[in-house]
Amino acid sequence: MAKRPVFGVFLILMVSIYPGFATADKNEMPAPSDTEAWIKIAGNPDAERRVVFIHGSPGSKEAYDDYLGHPALQHLELVSVDRPGFGESGRPVETSIQKQAEALMDLVNSGKETWVVGHSLGGPIALQLALLAPDRVSGLLLIASAFDPKLESPKWYNIITDTLLANWILPDDLLKSNREMMVLDKELEKLAAQNWSTLDMPVLLVHGAEDDLADPGNSLFAKAKLPAAELMMMPDEGHFILWENVPLLVDQINTLVSK
User: How far is Cα 11 from Cα 60, in angstroms, rounded to an integer?
Assistant: First the structure.
C-alpha cells in the first residue's frame, strides 16, 4: 500500500464501507449454525452452483450488491457474508485468517458446487477456506488481494490509528479494520507456510496494475505459489476494480463456474 495522507486513506476506506450500490431483491438471515457471519442470499436458491462472496477490510456483505442483483448471475445461488466484527455479524472482530475461514465453513458444506470470491482481505480468507476444504471449494476468484507478508507490514497510518487518540475520534469500522491490518503480515506468513499445491481447483487472480492499497506484487506472489492459476493484471485499474469494473468480474465469475 502506497503512502498517502492519513485522512485521505481514511476517506478511501470509508467508500468501501458505504458504497452506493444498486439494490437487489435479497433475503437476509443468520448464517447456518456455528457460522460467525450474517449472509445475504440472491439468485436462484435451488441452483446446484453457489457463489460465496467475502468482503475486504473494512466492509460488509453489501459490498457485493452489484453482483447479487446482476441479471447475468441470477442462474446461480449468490451468498454474501458479513465477516466477524463487520456489518451485522454481531461478533467481535477476528484477526486470524484461519479462524475467519473456519467461521465460514458451513457455507461450503451445502452439498452444492461452491465457488468463492474474495476482494482485498477477503482474498486470503477465501484461499484459506479452500485450503481447509479443498474438496468442497470448486474454484476461487481472488480480486486485488493481499498475499505477500513482505508487502503487508503495518504502514505509518496504521501505527497512528493504533493510538488512544485515534480510538477517540475515528469510526469503529476503521478501528476494527486497523486491528486486522496491524497483524496482517503475520497472518499472511501463516498462510504462506501452508501447502498451496493441494489446491487443484481453478483459481483466477485479478489485480489492478495501479492498485496503491494492495500492491499488485501480492498477486504475483500468489501466482508463484499457484503456477496453474490464471493471473489477470489489469492496466489502468486500481484497488476498487470490484466496483469500477463489474461487467469484467461478472464475466469472469460465469467463466469460472463453467469450468
Answer: 16
Residue 50 has pLDDT above 70, yes or no: yes
Q: Report the 10 Å Cβ neighbour count for 113.
A: 18
- Give the model's confidence band at 157: pLDDT under 50 very low, under 70 low, under 90 confident, else very high: confident
pLDDT category of residue 57 using cuts at 50, 70 and 90? very high
The count of residues in the chain is 259
Please state, rounded to an integer, the average pLDDT across all residues of the chain: 87
At 167 the pLDDT is 75
**Range of the structural domain that residue 130 is part of:** 6-257
CA distances from 186 to 148, 150, 155 (A): 10, 10, 14
Q: What angle do CA 182, 187, 193 make, to 5 degrees?
A: 150
Structurally, how many domains does the chain consist of? 1
In a domain, 1, yes or no: no
